[in-house]
Every structure is written in structure tokens, then in C-alpha cells.
From TrEMBL:
It comes from Cercophora scortea. InterPro entries: F-box-like_dom_sf (IPR036047), F-box_dom (IPR001810), FBXL15_LRR (IPR057207), Leu-rich_rpt (IPR001611), Leu-rich_rpt_Cys-con_subtyp (IPR006553), LRR_dom_sf (IPR032675). This is F-box domain-containing protein. Residues 1-41 form the F-box domain. It holds the Pfam family F-box-like. GO terms for biological process: SCF-dependent proteasomal ubiquitin-dependent protein catabolic process. GO terms for cellular component: SCF ubiquitin ligase complex.
Length: 534
């Protein structure tokens, strides 16, 4: 077989399969380690199972061909000698991920950067070898860099970021979480002048303050428009902004984003505890493309922000991910308008809030109406439902089992509606066969109180596989069990009978979760035994 055909056939194998195939014969060994098969080298998928010698041989053989290199978690190359082998072999890298390679020496890393001028994506998360000098080398040697990640690099600061921003004019994605000295005005001014960044991650940058953020958005001493009283500067191109855990930021700093980031799609402000409604109102009014919004641990937010601003904002029909975890002042009056108007929501985190069963019922109604409006309840018997909305409501004291049951009941109703639509005039036998395997549309995936979670997961599993009868049976027996437990705790007459019913309901529910038929034997007659006295 010609060598070219062998290469073509072996190109369909995974790296792990190539290493196994290399043990067949000497010819296979030589062919499997041909560099043309290793243009994309992702060692994170098999680094635990491949010997260090084989890994080094692959990199040396494929060095000139490798364009995508991922050594994340690859402990075999942590020794400095093996790292030097990688540097000498790889000269044409476009994407490089060295996250977690703790023993990468500084000189070795600098040599790798100098010899790869075509680097477009570089991930150096957590590397101790990264310093401001490293950033200077990147700015001089990698003019085509588009993504740069130096989060958790503790031996550098924002001055190195300034070098990269000013030297790499194609940079669009900058991730510098936990990097110090972002209060430097020169760094903020450099970010403002470039105006090329589409993603900016500054999570955990404790030094970032209001003044620095304002300079990043509208520069120093901008011209103020007389009519609108806003800075007259070009709008920023930011599409994703992460300012979580920047504890020095306040309302005056975050408010500067309003009317200056029209293309914003994702905003993360979790942990910026000093924010109020005034910080978010102008942002929501001027960001029509916003799809992801995280506002966790913001204790000063009120329900008025959600009901009067977010629910009526231009971004409401497009919002997909929303998180208000640990916002203890937010409840049903704020969330119900959101669930009613934001019809494209895919995930909502509401744990540790004041929401109640009303919000769960509103979410169930929204998902049911969305499935009907989008014509997802099709009549194909091979279509199965998917989780269209993920709700997280654990540690919410106002959510009871009746609200959880409302969600479970809604999931079953979607299936039953589909079953009836798919067989409007058929016989009972055909309807039963259809109900056993024909479901479509979207259901709700729920995370709730841990004592109920196993039942919710089992119910969701049955709905997803189209077993309507089993899902209904589980829901009914769980409801009987919960109701019997509530009755057993009530004082008064017939208490013994209520406790007995609670025990029987518990046994039936446990048997149903284990996949049994659910039948519970009647209580056996008590028998007294004779007492023998010796």
C-alpha cells in the first residue's frame, strides 16, 4: 500500500488508537509516528496513559507539522529537559495551551515564544514562569496574537498586559483574572486606545477601581455631549465582560458601561457587592444583544430592577442565561415578569433567594407556551424531549414540594399533549404505543432541595426516555408520600392512622424509585407471643 494511502487511512484514528497501532510492526510504528498525523496534538486526552518516551518521540517527529499544541495537565513534559525538546521541535504553532505546566522554565518558555511568530491563541494560565518580560517578548514576537490568557499568573502584573495590548494589534480576547495593579491609569488608557477587545476577563482583580474602569470605557477627560450628558467617544467593541469579584468597583464605575457597549452579549458582575440598581439601569437600556447576565451575591439589588427594567429592556427577548444566586432581596415580584417576558431563557439560577412556588409555576407555563409557539410538539414518534430550561432553586425557603410537583406535572403534560396530537383518531392500543415512545418538546431540568432531588432526577429520566406512565406513577406516589408526611405531623385525633398511612406511602414511593411495581402489602395482624418464665 502506498505511503500516502496509509497516511490517509490512519488519519481517521484518534491519538490513542495511533499509539496502539504503532505496536503492530516496524512499518506501522514508523507510519504511525509520521508528523503529518499529528498536526493537532492534544495531550490532555491521553496524557495519563502514554509513556513519557512515546510522548517525546511524537512531539519530535511531528514538531514541524504541529499547529495546535495542548499540553494541559501533561505531567510528562513538566521536566525541564522534556520541555526543551518541545521547544526545539515546535516551530509553527498557531494555538498553544501550556496551562498547568508548572515546571516550565522561564528561558524555555521565552525560546518557545520567540520561535513561533504565527501564534494566534496562547493560554499560559497559572504558569509561574510568566513575568512582565514574557509579555514584552510576546508583544515583539507574536504580532498575530488574538487570544491571550494569563489568569492566575502571580509573577506578573498589569504593566505586562499593557505591553501585549500595545504590541499585538489583532488581540480580541484578553483574560487576566487575578492579575494585580489594574488600577494603573496607563494600562486603562492603553485598553481604551486599542478598542479591539471583544472579550475582557478581569475576574478577581482586586485593584481595579472605578477610575480605571471609567478610563477603559471612555478615556481620560472625554468630551461631554451637551444634550445627552454622556461622553462623546466611539462605542466599545466588547461582547463579553467579566468583572466578578472586583470588590473595589461601585455603582459610579460600572455605570460608565451604559450606552458605551452596544454589542455586549455577556456580563458577569457576581461578587461586586457594592452595586445598586442605578449601576445596571443604563446598561440594560442600551445593550439589546445581552444573552448572559450574572448578578450573584448583589445584596442591594431590588425587585424593581427586574420587573421595571430588565423585563422591559430590549435584551429581554434574547436573554438565555440569568443568575441571581444569593440575592436575598429578590423574590417573586421581580422574577415572575422576567419568566413571563424572557421567553428564550435556557438556565436560571435562583438559589438562596426569596422566590416561591409562584415563580416555578410561571417558569412551567413559559416553557409550555414556548414549546407550543415554536411548533416543537411535532407528531414524529421518534422525537424525544430535551431539557430546554435548567432551574436551580435549592436553599430557597419559600419553595415547597407543591411547586416542585408543578414542574414535574408540566413536564408530563408536554409529553401527554404530544401523544394526543400524534394520534388524534387512533385506537386505544395505538395511543398506548405512541405514548410509550413518542414525546417531543422542551421540559424543565430542576435542582432543588437535596431530599427531593433523587425523585426529581428519576422523574426527569423517565420523561426524557418517553415513559409517561412510569413518570405519572412516580409523581403520584411521591405526592401521596409528601402529603401523608404532612398529615402525620398534625396533632389531634386519628394520629396513629395518619402515621400508618405515611409509612405505607413511604414504602410505596421507595419501591417505585427502585423500579418496582409499587404494590404495598397490607399491614400484618399483630400477634402476641407467650411468655415463658424459667
Amino acid at each position: 500500500m502506498p505511503h500516502e494511502i496509509r497516511i490517509y487511512v490512519l488519519a481517521f484514528l484518534t491519538p490513542k488508537e495511533l499509539v496502539r497501532a504503532s505496536t503492530v510492526s516496524k512499518d506501522f510504528y514508523k507510519t504511525c509516528f509520521d508528523g503529518q498525523l499529528w498536526t493537532c496534538f492534544d495531550a490532555s486526552e491521553f496524557y495519563k496513559e502514554i509513556p513519557a518516551e512515546s510522548l517525546a518521540k511524537i512531539i519530535v517527529a511531528a514538531g514541524p507539522f504541529v499547529k495546535d499544541l495542548n499540553l494541559r495537565g501533561c505531567v510528562q513534559v513538566e521536566h525541564y529537559k522534556r520541555a526543551e525538546v518541545v521547544v526545539k521541535a515546535c516551530k509553527n504553532l498557531i494555538n498553544a495551551t501550556l496551562e498547568g505546566c508548572r515546571n516550565f522554565q522561564r528561558t524555555t518558555l521565552h525560546s518557545l515564544l520567540r520561535s513561533n511568530e504565527k501564534l494566534a491563541n496562547l493560554n499560559l494560565t497559572g504558569l509561574t514562569a510568566v513575568t512582565n518580560d514574557t509579555c514584552r517578548i510576546i508583544a515583539q514576537s507574536c504580532p498575530q496574537l488574538q487570544m491571550f490568557n494569563v489568569s492566575w499568573c502571580k509573577h506578573m502584573d498589569a504593566r505586562g498586559i499593557r505591553e501585549v495590548v500595545e504590541g499585538c494589534h489583532m488581540l480580541k480576547d484578553l483574560r487576566a483574572g487575578e492579575v494585580k495593579r489594574f488600577d494603573n491609569r496607563e494600562v486603562a488608557e492603553a485598553i481604551f486606545r486599542t478598542n479591539n477587545l471583544e472579550r475582557l476577563v478581569l475576574a478577581g482583580c482586586d485593584d481595579l477601581g472605578d477610575t480605571a474602569l471609567q478610563i477603559m470605557i471612555h478615556g481620560q477627560n472625554p468630551e461631554i455631549d451637551v444634550l445627552t450628558d454622556r461622553p462623546n467617544v466611539p462605542p466599545r467593541k466588547l461582547r463579553h465582560l467579566d468583572l466578578s469579584r472586583c470588590v473595589r468597583l461601585t455603582t459610579s464605575g460600572v455605570k460608565a458601561l451604559g450606552h458605551n457597549v452596544p454589542d455586549l452579549e455577556g456580563l458577569v458582575l457576581s461578587g461586586v457587592t457594592r452595586l445598586t440598581d442605578l449601576a445596571l439601569e443604563p446598561i440594560l437600556a442600551s445593550a439589546p444583544r445581552l444573552t448572559h447576565l450574572e448578578l450573584e451575591e448583589l445584596a442591594e439589588l431590588t425587585n424593581a430592577l427586574l420587573s421595571e427594567h430588565l423585563a422591559k429592556a430590549p435584551c429581554a427577548p434574547k436573554l438565555e442565561h440569568f443568575s441571581i444566586s444569593y440575592c436575598e432581596n429578590l423574590g417573586d415580584s421581580g422574577m415572575m415578569p422576567i419568566l413571563r417576558n424572557c421567553t428564550r431563557l435556557r438556565s436560571v439560577f435562583m438559589d438562596n433567594t426569596r422566590i416561591s412556588d409562584l415563580s416555578l409555576a410561571e417558569a412551567a407555563t413559559m416553557v409550555r407556551n414556548r414549546a407550543i409557539d415554536s411548533a416543537q410538539l411535532v407528531s414524529s414518534p421518534s422525537a424525544y424531549p430535551v431539557v430546554g430550561l435548567s432551574l436551580v432553586v435549592y436553599d430557597t425557603q419559600n419553595v415547597t414540594w407543591t411547586g416542585v410537583r408543578e414542574v414535574l406535572s408540566n413536564n408530563v403534560k408536554i409529553v401527554q399533549r404530544k401523544s394526543s396530537n400524534s394520534n388524534p383518531t387512533g385506537t386505544a392500543g395505538q395511543a398506548t404505543a405512541t405514548a410509550s415512545k413518542s414525546v417531543a418538546g422542551e421540559i424543565i431540568g430542576l435542582k432543588c432541595f437535596y431530599g427531593w432531588q433523587m425523585t426529581v432526577d428519576e422523574h426527569t429520566k423517565r420523561v426524557l426516555r418517553g415513559d409517561v406512565a412510569a413518570a405519572c406513577r412516580l409523581e403520584r406516589k411521591w405526592a401521596d408520600y409528601m402529603q401523608a408526611n404532612e398529615e402525620a405531623g398534625v396533632a389531634g385525633a386519628n394520629g396513629r392512622r395518619r402515621r400508618r398511612r405515611a409509612r405505607e406511602a413511604q414504602l410505596a414511593h421507595a419501591d417505585e424509585e427502585e423500579g418496582g411495581a409499587g404494590a404495598v402489602q397490607g399491614r400484618r395482624r399483630a400477634r402476641t407471643a407467650a411468655c415463658a418464665v424459667m
